[in-house]
């Protein structure tokens, strides 16, 4: 009989408790609002930005869940999430650049205030309320800041997944360990 405390496939990974996932959900909500408010209906960028934001969020969830049986898949999907958010980052920067709007830079008061606010809040309801009264410049900079913060968290998650793999191995090694323990218990 397998000891439930040593079961080799966890039931859930609780991705929604990860700060990286929470940030990505905020990014999705901010992006959805942004594109529908500031971009034209026929603008292809609308779908691309929403899809990149969605991909960032969904691949974190899928990667973390897949990590129950495959560290390799988890690492790949978390990196896909990072890549999707990097694509979205470029879209926001392009939006600001082609419209001659300000990208808030480190050291500026607006940047520092935004960075602190984004670090303090991982609840998408906070952003949905806050952006309703902000300009396109402010919302784009908020999204950019959230993307940078999510990227740092996702790089940390990849490092943790790599360490977990080195420490525990993959699913085949875990299955072998449990099977050998089971055999020892029957002797």
TrEMBL record:
Protein name stated in the entry: Four helix bundle protein
Gene3D superfamilies: 23S rRNA-intervening sequence
């Amino acid at each position: 009989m397998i000891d439930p405390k040593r079961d080799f496939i966890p039931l859930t990974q609780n991705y929604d408790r990860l700060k990286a996932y929470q940030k990505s959900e905020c990014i999705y909500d901010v992006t959805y609002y942004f594109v529908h408010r500031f971009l034209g209906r026929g603008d292809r960028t609308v779908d691309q930005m929403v899809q990149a934001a969605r991909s960032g969020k969904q691949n974190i969830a899928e990667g973390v869940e897949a990590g129950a049986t495959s560290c390799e898949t988890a690492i790949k999907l978390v990196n896909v999430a990072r890549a999707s958010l990097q694509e979205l980052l470029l879209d926001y920067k392009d939006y600001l650049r082609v419209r001659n709007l300000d990208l808030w830079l480190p050291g500026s008061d607006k940047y520092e205030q935004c960075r602190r606010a984004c670090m303090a809040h991982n609840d998408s309801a906070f952003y949905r309320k806050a952006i309703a009264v902000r300009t396109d410049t402010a919302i784009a900079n908020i999204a950019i800041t959230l993307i940078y913060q999510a990227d740092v968290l996702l790089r940390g998650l990849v490092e943790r997944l790599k360490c977990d793999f080195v420490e525990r191995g993959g699913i085949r090694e875990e299955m072998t360990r449990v099977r050998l323990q089971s055999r020892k218990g029957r002797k």
